[in-house]
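From the shared-data thread, chain only:
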Amino acid sequence: MSEHPGPACADPTEEISIRIPCVLAERVAAYAKESGDTITNVIIEALDFFLMRQPPR
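Structure, as C-alpha cells:
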C-alpha cells in the first residue's frame, strides 16, 4: 500500500464495522477468492484506490 501523509496511528491497523449491500459483499468475496487474496485486502486496496484519486480538500 502507498504511503499517506498525516499523523500516524499508534497501531497501524484499526478495526471498523460497516454494512454493505449483500450483492456487493458477494462480489468482494468472489473477487478475493479468484485473486487469492483476503476480503480485507480487497477492501483496503479498493478504498485506497478510490481515495487517492479524490482532489485534495
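The helical segments are 22-35, 39-52.
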